[in-house]
C-alpha cells in the first residue's frame, strides 16, 4: 500500500460540515495505510466551473464559431489549456485512486464539481474516440463516489420517493464522463444522519480489517455509512437508518 497516490476532489463550502469530516477521515485513514494524499478543495481554490473560451490559452481553431469540445480537445493535444486545468489533470494522472467527496445536489454533483469534470476530464485527456469507457485513458485508475444527502435513507430506495440512488448516480458511474475511464469501487452514501450518529458515521474509532481501498473489487455501487470502513474493509454495510428530521449535509 505504501507509495500509492490518492486524489480527493472535495466539493463543500464548510470545512466543519459532515462532508468535511468524511474528507478528513479519508485523509487520515489513507495516510495510515501509507498512501500519499492530495486534496483539491474546490471551494477553497475558488475553482472556475464554467467551460468558456478562457480555457484555451492558445489560438482557437475556429474563432468565428466556438465549440468548446473541439477547442478543448485540440488545446489538450497542444498543451495549451489554462494552467488551472493542466494542474488538475496532473493530479489525476499521478493518482492511483480518485475520491469524489460531495453533497448530493438535485440528484447529482454540485455545480463546482460538475465544472471540474467538464473542464478537467476533457477529450484528449480522459478519453478519445475510440478510447473511452473500459478502454479510456484512465482505465487503470480506481474511482470512488463518497456523498451525503439531506434526505432520509428510505427516500433513496427502489420504492422511495426519490428512487434508488443507484439509478440516478448511473450517469456518473455507468455512462457519464467520469465513467469513461476509471474502474469504480463501490460508493459510500451517508443519508441524513442525526447529530448523535455523525461521530460514528464519520469513522471515529474502529479497528482495521487489513484490507485497503485498493483491494476492493471494481463493481458499480454499494451502500456504506462509514467511509473509513469503506476504505478498510471489503464488507458492504447497509445505508444508515436516517432520522425523521433532515439535518443537512
TrEMBL record:
<keyword id="KW-0597">Phosphoprotein</keyword>
<feature type="domain" description="Flavodoxin-like fold">
    <location>
        <begin position="4"/>
        <end position="174"/>
    </location>
</feature>
<keyword id="KW-0560">Oxidoreductase</keyword>
<keyword id="KW-0963">Cytoplasm</keyword>
<dbReference type="GO" id="GO:0001512">
    <property type="term" value="F:dihydronicotinamide riboside quinone reductase activity"/>
</dbReference>
<dbReference type="GO" id="GO:0046872">
    <property type="term" value="F:metal ion binding"/>
</dbReference>
<comment type="function">
    <text>The enzyme apparently serves as a quinone reductase in connection with conjugation reactions of hydroquinones involved in detoxification pathways as well as in biosynthetic processes such as the vitamin K-dependent gamma-carboxylation of glutamate residues in prothrombin synthesis.</text>
</comment>
<keyword id="KW-0274">FAD</keyword>
<dbReference type="InterPro" id="IPR003680">
    <property type="entry name" value="Flavodoxin_fold"/>
</dbReference>
<keyword id="KW-0479">Metal-binding</keyword>
<dbReference type="InterPro" id="IPR029039">
    <property type="entry name" value="Flavoprotein-like_sf"/>
</dbReference>
<protein>
    <recommendedName>
        <fullName>Ribosyldihydronicotinamide dehydrogenase [quinone]</fullName>
        <ecNumber>1.10.5.1</ecNumber>
    </recommendedName>
</protein>
<comment type="subunit">
    <text>Homodimer.</text>
</comment>
<keyword id="KW-0862">Zinc</keyword>
<dbReference type="GO" id="GO:0005737">
    <property type="term" value="C:cytoplasm"/>
</dbReference>
<dbReference type="Pfam" id="PF02525">
    <property type="entry name" value="Flavodoxin_2"/>
</dbReference>
<keyword id="KW-0285">Flavoprotein</keyword>
<dbReference type="InterPro" id="IPR051545">
    <property type="entry name" value="NAD(P)H_dehydrogenase_qn"/>
</dbReference>
<comment type="similarity">
    <text>Belongs to the NAD(P)H dehydrogenase (quinone) family.</text>
</comment>
Amino acid at each position: 500500500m505504501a507509495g500509492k497516490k490518492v486524489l480527493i476532489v472535495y466539493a463543500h463550502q464548510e470545512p466543519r460540515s459532515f462532508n468535511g469530516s468524511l474528507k478528513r477521515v479519508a485523509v487520515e485513514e489513507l495516510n495510515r495505510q501509507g498512501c500519499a494524499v492530495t486534496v483539491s478543495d474546490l471551494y477553497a481554490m475558488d475553482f472556475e466551473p464554467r467551460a468558456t473560451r478562457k480555457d484555451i490559452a492558445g489560438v482557437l481553431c475556429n474563432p468565428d464559431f466556438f465549440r468548446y469540445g473541439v477547442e478543448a480537445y485540440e488545446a489538450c493535444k497542444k498543451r495549451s489549456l489554462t494552467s488551472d486545468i493542466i494542474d488538475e489533470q496532473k493530479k489525476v494522472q499521478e493518482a492511483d485512486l480518485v475520491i469524489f467527496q460531495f453533497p448530493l445536489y438535485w440528484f447529482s454533483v454540485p455545480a463546482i464539481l460538475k465544472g471540474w469534470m467538464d473542464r478537467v476530464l476533457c477529450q484528449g485527456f480522459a478519453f478519445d474516440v475510440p478510447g473511452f469507457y473500459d478502454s479510456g485513458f484512465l482505465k487503470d485508475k480506481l474511482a470512488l463516489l463518497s456523498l451525503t444527502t439531506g434526505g432520509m435513507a428510505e427516500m433513496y430506495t427502489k420504492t422511495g420517493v426519490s428512487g434508488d440512488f443507484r439509478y440516478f448516480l448511473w450517469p456518473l458511474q455507468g455512462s457519464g464522463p467520469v465513467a469513461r475511464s476509471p474502474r469504480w469501487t463501490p460508493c459510500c452514501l451517508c443519508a441524513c444522519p442525526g447529530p448523535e450518529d455523525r461521530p460514528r458515521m464519520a469513522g471515529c474509532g474502529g479497528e482495521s480489517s487489513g484490507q485497503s481501498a485498493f483491494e476492493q473489487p471494481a463493481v458499480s455501487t454499494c451502500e456504506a455509512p462509514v467511509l473509513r470502513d469503506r476504505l478498510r474493509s471489503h464488507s458492504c454495510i447497509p445505508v444508515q437508518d436516517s432520522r425523521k428530521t433532515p439535518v443537512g449535509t
